[in-house]
Amino acid sequence: MKGRPLLAVAAAAASSLALAACLEVGLASSVAFPPDVPGLDAGQPWLRLPVDAWVTEGGIEPVAIAACFASSCSPPAAVGLFRARGTAAERLAAAAAEPQRLVRALLEGRPRPRSLGSAPRPKITAAAEPLREAGWRGFTLHMARQDGSRPAYAAVLTRMAGGAATAVVVVAAAPDAAQRLAREVAARQG
């Protein structure tokens, strides 16, 4: 009788190790072969980032993230595709519908973390405009230092379906590129 419980414990341990190995293989494959962002130009050197280990705000999950910073990228850009369900989806859709709230938060700023030193935060300007595209809604955002230097452009499109929200977030060095990429990725989301 003593052999059977030991055999059961060994079988349970082996099963647990096999399951853990499967999880590790899944994580390793997402690091080695991160998912594509549908709708991006395959002719550009997009760097796909692994998303499985990312920690995001609340119930928002990264689906795919890519960046193109090579000299052939015109202009450099980063693209993220995210999904949320339940309350997080509702909050995401509400934020996309009210871009002026985001602008106010950016302009008010938060205290600088000590880890970033004591240098004052640069003064910025920010402006947002609504953006709509075939059932998607969101906004464009332009930010720069008050002297106009270091501009950044973003386009965000969200869509609610069945209690879930899908969001496309693009940050680029040119406003037309941010909008174009957001529209192309949104169009490929079915």
Automatic annotation (TrEMBL):
<keyword id="KW-0732">Signal</keyword>
<protein>
    <submittedName>
        <fullName>Uncharacterized protein</fullName>
    </submittedName>
</protein>
<feature type="signal peptide">
    <location>
        <begin position="1"/>
        <end position="20"/>
    </location>
</feature>
